[in-house]
Amino acid sequence: MPASTSSTFRQPASQEPHITTKLPAHDADCPECGLRVSLPKLKRGQKAACPRCGRHLVHIENQPFSTVFACASAALILMLLVYSQPFVTVQARGIYAPLSLPEMVYWLLADNWSFMALTMLFLTFGTPLLFLLLVLYSYFALSVRRNWPFVHGAVRMITRLRQWIMVDVFFISMLVAYIKIKEVAEVHFGAAFWLMPAWALLLLRTSLAVSEHWTYRQFVKIRKFPVFQAAENTVCCSHCLHFRPLTEIHCGVCGSELFQRRPHSLKISLYLLIAAALLYLPANLLPIMITENPVKTETSTILSGVVYMWHKGDKLVAAVIFSASVAVPVLKIISLSLLMLCTQYRLSADAHILSWQYRITEAIGRWSMIDIFVIIILMTSFHTPMARVTPGPAAVYFCLVVVLTMLSAYFFDPRMLWDKQNKETV
Ligand SMILES: [Zn+2]
Ligand SMILES: [Zn+2]
Fold first, then answer.
1. What's the gap in Å between 242 CA and the centre of ligand 2?
2. Looking at residues 19-27, what average pLDDT do you find?
3. Same domain, 187 and 81
4. What's the 350 CA to ligand 1 centre distance in angstroms?
5. Which ligand is nearest to the CA of 220?
6. Residue 88 sits in the same domain as residue 185
7. What is the rounded distance in angstroms from the CA atom of residue 97 to the CA atom of residue 102?
8. Are residues 195 and 314 in the same domain?
9. Ligand nearest 152 Cα, by number?
């Protein structure tokens, strides 16, 4: 089936003439619905999507290299500024906490909360830094047309790191924490806070500028790999969308595992979901946050915290925490269960709707981390004997629920949702 194409970008005034950036007409199997799509010849500024499920398949930027270099370099500079400038200062009687992001990590480690420190460090420092360095490395290798070591693995990691970059989630968490803190203390934002949304936007733009299929096509040309056509004895790689011989176990272009449908997808996804559902119980029943001052100690669970904020009048905070910590994980668990039931029992449901349900389920999971980040911000703001906030055991269980549901969605192969429809139309 021919792909739906569109030119969404303006044609460039000047181009990068030394690099061939066009894509010839060729076939590719949609990684979301499995349809074999005939991609037309694509030029700069054009993109192609699956005509059946609408999944984006490939795009070519107007200035493929300049755009990536500019966005990734600017994001790296902003990252250095965000991590070197003051983020927030919290001031009240007996409390003066000027905090930069490294200081927040330091206080978490000093209070022996290495799990929380590692969570923050991994999601707001490790993943964006690794992502930007790998993008610059692989695109530099491409632009000088060199076959440098680990370049194909770097591109594979870039695409997998995307959903684990949570700078935007951390920024929204700071806004939620601000509404909570301003009741008891003065809050002054530093330069790092104001730079953070720009950094998050640049990370997103860099991520959008990297088209996996187009990038691997350039490597195929540089390495002079043979290009296989769609045939009985070939299988289309779900990641780089190149056809490879059935005899290969791992794709010769990108190194990913080759399969028509992910092996044991339903079973792995189900086990991860069951583990997440079981851990969601202690995550809700045990205290998630403990607040101490010289007069009293208070413990709160996720729900008691929401109810407290609601009655106190902070309805916006209550709504955000309820959505992130209760609605999103519960809806995600229910949604994935329904998708698995439809797949296992081949229930007659519209594959288009199920496909959209899967995309939304996959996209919203990371926003559940808001509550954990809010606790981290409160912990680092209030760490004196006059006022101390510490996480309860539920925080660890809740982090695990978020990770397990994200992994469950990742291992679920959405092509199974279309298989029944495929058989009916054959
Ligand atoms: Zn499709
Ligand atoms: Zn591949």
1. 6
2. 77
3. yes
4. 14
5. 2
6. yes
7. 13
8. no
9. 2
In a domain, 203, yes or no: yes
Residues with beta carbon < 5 A to ion ligand 1? 30, 32-33, 35, 50, 52-53, 55
Domain assignment present for residue 233? The answer is no
Among the candidates 224, 254, 284, a domain finishes at: 224
Whether the CB-CB separation of 132 and 200 falls below 8 Å is answered with: no
Q: What is the dihedral of CA 261, 264, 265, 269, to 10 degrees?
A: 180
pLDDT in tens, 129-146: 999 999 999 999 988 888
d(CA 139, CA 142): 5
Residues 165 and 108 in one domain: yes
Q: Rounded to the nearest whole angstrom, what is the distance from the C-alpha of residue 185 to the centroid of ligand 2? A: 53
Region 320-346: mean pLDDT is 90
Residues 344, 406, single domain; the answer is: yes
Backbone φ and ψ of 247, nearest 5°? -70, -20
Tokens of 87: 């983020």
Residue 273 Cα to ligand 2 middle (Å)? 27
Full residue range of the structural domain in which residue 379 is found: 265-426
Ligand at minimal distance from the CA of 35 is 1
List the Cα angle 247/249/255 in 5-degree steps: 125
**Cα of 8 vs its chain's centroid, Å:** 24
Residues 6+ apart with CB under 8 A from 334: none
User: How much distance in Å is there from the Cα of 34 to the middle of ligand 1?
Assistant: 6
Tokens of 252: 């010769």
Q: Which residue has the higher pLDDT, 78 or 115?
A: 78
Q: Is residue 22 part of a domain?
A: no
Domain identity same for 100 and 190: yes
Give residue 221's pLDDT band: very low, low, confident or very high (50, 70, 90). Answer: confident
Look at the chain and report how many structural domains it folds into: 2
Residues 83 and 194 both lie in one domain: yes
